[in-house]
Amino acid sequence: MKIETLFPQGFAANTYFITGAEGTVVIDPAQPRALDEAKRLGLEVRYVLLTHAHFDHLGGCAAMKAAGAQIGCLDRERNAVAAYNVALLVYGEDAPQTPLDFTVTDGQILSLCGLEVRVIATPGHTMGSCCFLIRDGEETALFSGDTLFRGNVGDTERSINKLRALEASLEKLSKLENCTVYPGHGLPTTIDEEKKNGILPM
Length: 202
Known about the structure:
Blueprint: E1 2-6, E2 15-20, E3 23-27, H1 33-40, E4 45-50, H2 55-58, H3 61-66, E5 70-74, H4 78-90, E6 102-104, E7 109-112, E8 115-121, E9 130-136, E10 139-145, E11 148-149, E12 152-153, H5 160-174, E13 180-183, E14 189-190, H6 191-196
Parallel strand pairs: 3-4, 4-5, 5-6, 10-13
Antiparallel strand pairs: 1-2, 2-3, 7-8, 8-9, 9-10, 11-12, 13-14
């Protein structure tokens, strides 16, 4: 697989383009220019996967949808995507809505664009957050959204329930084999590096 990153302009998340033998999966198209970047790279975007439904991860979804991509997220985050669409209407934003095409569940394994995509529910930052573990042959990468960063973790808004959920999610991630981690913000890291940093339990 080939992984390409579009870093944001202003406040937004990283956008990832993961290309397999049968097209490209985009994770968190944060800004409308993500589609322009896909076109510039000559990518055929077939699917969009959302790690969670915060606005800084969704801004390019409508453009991707209009170009024919199917959009999916964890089933528990469906209502948050709907709330995002409602907010666009309430605040008068001139932006297309982002209806979902499918939802996924914890532990589900998808075959998208010739890639194996494992869904890992990681509640904490939001209660419907998830990560995507993508394999292509012997190559593996984790796309962690705002659950795990290089040297840090996602905000839990001082909620005890979210903090406890996040701690359980980090425990789950610590059991994965070592691989490169591509976070929602900042630079990549690895599972082993975040164990050394004390972010993930040993």
